[in-house]
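Record type: ASSEMBLY
Status: queued
Input:
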Amino acid sequence: MLSFTAQAQKVAYLGQVLHFTGDPSQATNPQDAYQYFEKGALIVDKGKVVKVGIASELDALIKQSKVIDYKDKLIIPGFIDTHIHYPQTEMIAAFGEQLLDWLKKYTFPAEKQFSDKAYAKDVSDIFLHQLLSNGTTTALVFGTVHPESVDALFSQAKSLDMRLIAGKVMMDRNAPDYLLDTAKSSYDETKALIQKWHNKDRLLYAITPRFAPTSTPEQLTAAGQLKEEFPDTWVHTHLSENKGEIEWVKSLFPDRKSYTDVYDFYKLTSDKSIFAHSIHLDDDEVATLASTGSSIAFCPTSNLFLGSGLFKLSTMKEAGVRVGLGTDVGAGTSFSMLETLNEAYKIIQLQNQKLSAFEGFYLATLGGAKSLSLDQYIGNFETGKEADFVVIDWGGTPFQAYRQSKTTSLHEKLFVLMTIGDDRNIHATYVMGKKQFEQGMAHPATKSL
Ligand SMILES: [Zn+2]
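Status: finished
Output:
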C-alpha cells in the first residue's frame, strides 16, 4: 500500500506504455490514433499524469522520481465500463430467459434486498473490487430503486477515490410493488442524491429511469425536469434491447413515433445521456441519437446471453453516434473488458465486419471516456489527466505466455490479449495514482464469505 508520503512524490512507472489519442477506425492510418512506447515511462504526480513517452527521453524527470519498473508488462489507461448494474453482481449467470422474463424471475427479487444498507454496502464492496481486479477504473452504474443502494455504492467508491457515475433507479410501474417508487418520490429522492453526491470528489450522478416500460409519463416528465434543473448530470437508461420490449413500449406510448422518441419527448436525450443496447433502432432513431449528441453503451456479452441481437457498430459510427463498451453485469457474463472485447469481435464478425484490436482497446479506454463525456479527465495519458491505469501481464497464464511468444506485431499481441485474456492478465490497477488492486491481493469482503 502506498503511503501518503509516497503519493506526494513523483513516480515513474516504467514498462510498455500504450494509449490512444483518437479513434483508430476513423484514422487513415491506425498508427496516427495511438502512441506506443516499448520502453516507455508514465510519470505521475499527485494523482495526475505529468508526462508519458520513451523512457530514455524522460531521463531528467525519471531521476527526480521514485521508479517502479514493470519491465515488459503493458501499462494502459484504466478500462471504462459504460453500463453495469451493481445489484445484479450476485445473479450473474441466471439461466434460460430473455429480457422481460429474466427481469421478473431473477432481477427484481435480487434487487429487493438493497433496501438494507448493510447488504448494499457488502455488495458494493465486492462489486468495486471486481471492477478493479478486472482493470476497470470508471463505470456508469445502475443502483436499485432504493436511495440506500446509491449511498452505499458512492460511499465505497469515494473511499477508493474512483471516478464513478451512478444513480437510483426510477421505476413506478410494471414491476413488483416492493420495488416501485412514485413520480413524486423518485423526483425527491433523486434530487436529494444529486445534492448529496454529484461532483463530490470524483463522483457524478446519473438520472436513471430503468427503461420506458417501467416509468409512467409522469415519472419520465419528472426525470426530464431533473435533467433541466441539473443540466450537468447524466442520464442513464436502456433502449431497444429486445423485440418484445419494443412492442411493449409501442403499446404503452402509442403517441410516440418510436422507442427513442419516448426519451427524446421527455427531454432525456443529451450529450450526457447514455442508452444501453440500442440494437434494433430504425434510421430516424439513430438520427435522433446523433442530433442530440446521445451515446450508446454496446454490451456484447449481455446481448448474446439474453439473445437480444447484434449491435450495429459501423452504422452508429457512420451516423456520428458515440459508442462505449458495457459489461451489463448481471445480464452480461463477465466483469472483464477483455472478455467483453472478445465477444464484441464475434458480434461484428457475424455481420461480416471486423473489429481491430486497436479499435477494441480504444473503445475500452478513450472511446468509453468520450462516450461518457469524461475525456477531459480520463481515457488516455495526456498531461494533466487523472492517473487511472492498469498494468497488464501479457502472459496471464502459461498458455497465454506461449501464445504471446509467437506474436510478431503489437496488433497481434493486443488481439490475442483481447481474445483469450481475462482477469488473470490484470497485474495491478491504479486509481488517481494509487494502487488499489494487485494480483494475489486478498479482499476483505470476499474473504469473509
Ligand atoms: Zn442493463
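Annotation: The first helix runs from residue 4 to 7.
Annotation: The pocket of zinc ion is lined by residues 83, 85, 238, 276, 328 (CB under 6 Å).
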